[in-house]
Amino acid sequence: MLCLSEKECLKTKKAIAVVVLTLAYCLQGNVSVAEDSTTETEANPWQWLLGNREVVSRNVTAVGRNLDNWLAGEGIGEQSNQTYLSVRLNQQIGSRDGYHSRARIGGSLDLPRASERWRLIFESDAEELNSLEGDVLGDEVSGEGIAGLSYQQKLGERWQLSHAIGLRDRLPADPFYRFKAQHQRTLNADWSLSFRQKIWHYKTQGWGYDTDFTFNREISASKILSISSGVKYQQDRKRTEFSQILALHDTRAEFETLSYELGLLGSNRPNSRINDYFTGVRYRHALEDDWLFVEVVPQLLVSRDENWRPELRLIINLEMLFFDF
Predict the structure, then answer these.
(1) How many Cα neighbours within 13 Å face the side chain of 242?
(2) Residue 156 C-alpha from the chain's centroid
């Protein structure tokens, strides 16, 4: 049973109302209205946001282009600039933890004229500092901002590498290094493999790594079965975590997917054991073209720490992208 204060109850009711209205919009399809009462705003409920978003997008890209021009000096020719900014609002309602609301900001400043491979990056939430459980279940809680330079590199046709150096948002200065590698390979007519590796080191928290193997099988033109295995180690926590996830992804439209997930989470401390089982549905839909997305994730979680009592959770993510390319 959910026990919340009066203030938390009000927040929860507001969040539920947002969910209901969002789902109603996502599923309503085409709405017929009388011609004499149809306005541009009624035809597109996000029209009020579109103008402001375009202004911010132009300014974001202009910052990247101007910085690129300054660093390049007497550069030659015009090049497309892929600077972008992302804003992600995370809402979570749980039958035990109540209501939580978080915001996450990230982005990249593209420098195509100054350098084809270097980018300026910034993130308000460094994923590697979260636990594996937080990454898998959608708990964006680290709150550790970072900024730095990223060097992009391709190794053949299948490998993508990046090196990042920078500082964490705290005093005294906390420099870091982060390496990422991604690899994709077709195994046979039915199966493919996706591999991701991340290794990092922070001066104050030591080093860690995050490894993920995903086997994908195409069931039909729109459905893919995924089997993922993940391992994450963090030196400061002196703990290794692992995950196993089975998912079925259904692509309904260009920017609309529905995923069914079943998985488990574990760790090696105090001994190697399974700590959580979970299942859920992840619905992602583009509210407006390719820049405004909503993600609704109802979950059922049972944890060892809660004596295997089931917990119902609802996560809502609203993501907005700002770019002009």
Answers:
(1) 11
(2) 27
What span, in angstroms and rounded, lies between the C-alpha atoms of 181 and 196? 6
Cα–Cα distance between 112 and 121 in angstroms, integer? 14
Please give the C-alpha separations between residue 102 and each of 83, 87, 255, 279, 312, in angstroms, as whole numbers: 24, 11, 24, 23, 19
Which residues are 110's β-sheet partners?
Answer: 119
Give dist(CA 267, CA 237) in Å, integer.
11
Cβ-contact 280, 309 below 8 angstroms: no
Q: Is the peptide bond before 270 cis (omega within 30 degrees of 0)?
A: yes
How many H-runs (helices) and E-runs (strands) does the chain carry? 4, 14
Distance CA 277, CA 266 (A): 9
pLDDT along the chain (325 residues), means of 10: 45 45 43 43 62 77 72 57 85 82 83 73 86 84 81 87 92 92 92 96 94 96 95 94 97 92 93 95 90 94 94 93 81
Specify whether the CB–CB gap between 182 and 191 falls below 8 A.
no
Q: Which domains does the chain have, with CATH numbers?
A: 56-73+80-322 (2.40.160.40)
10 Å Cβ neighbour count for 282?
19
Please, what is the Cα angle at 231 between 225 and 232, to 5 degrees?
135
User: Against a cut of 0.85, is the pTM above it?
Assistant: no
Residues 6+ apart with CB under 8 A from 250: 222, 223, 257, 258, 259, 260
Q: Is the peptide bond before 45 cis (omega within 30 degrees of 0)?
A: no
Listed residue (137, 95, 100) closest to 15, CA to CA: 100
CA distances from 92 to 18, 73, 98, 103, 293 (A): 12, 47, 8, 12, 17
